[in-house]
Design a protein that fits this description.
Blueprint: H1 9-13, H2 16-36, H3 44-61, H4 64-67, H5 73-98, H6 102-138, H7 147-150
Region (Disordered): 136-156
Subcellular location: Membrane
Protein name: CKLF like MARVEL transmembrane domain containing 3
């Protein structure tokens, strides 16, 4: 799971699990608004983001990130945040500008709120990803030597 900080943006928002919960709720509300609106063609994006956030919530809760070490979980979370923020921003602009019914406008407004929340999650995840990558590259693997360490010759 992501690392915890003392007094950062993450602790002001209530931690990772609360932020993921907010993202699930926002995605579900936006999905319902798009179903009720004339912009129903946009309903797939919030549904997929809701399901992806739900999957990652259960993956972190069941500690799958500790069982599957080969998958870079912070990178997965980072890509989810980036794509969600971009997609929500794009479909919110389209919903607010193109459609006139109230449900489309509500979905667009909630989409802009979701864009901001995903951007905050993007910022937190980016800092955790940088920390994760620095930890991975700070210590070389013990069993392997580089080609320079093995060779004794000074020739070019």
């Amino acid at each position: 799971m992501r690392g915890s900080r003392g007094l950062g943006l993450q602790s002001l928002l209530g931690g990772d699990q609360l932020l993921v919960h907010h993202l699930k709720v926002l995605s579900f509300i936006i999905f319902i608004c798009y179903i009720a609106s004339s912009a129903a063609s946009f309903m797939m994006a919030p549904l997929l983001e809701f399901l992806l956030a739900l999957f990652l919530f259960f993956a972190y809760a069941s500690k799958l990130n500790e069982k599957f070490k080969g998958l870079y979980w912070p990178l997965t979370d980072f890509l989810r945040c980036v794509t969600a923020a971009i997609i929500y921003f794009a479909i919110s602009i389209a919903a607010v500008s193109k459609y006139t019914d109230g449900a489309s406008k509500a979905a667009g407004v909630f989409g802009f709120i979701a864009t901001i929340v995903y951007a905050i999650d993007f910022y937190i995840t980016f800092n955790d990803l940088v920390t994760f990558l620095k930890q991975g590259t700070s210590s070389p693997p013990e069993g392997r030597k580089s080609d320079d360490e093995d060779s004794d010759s000074d020739s070019d």
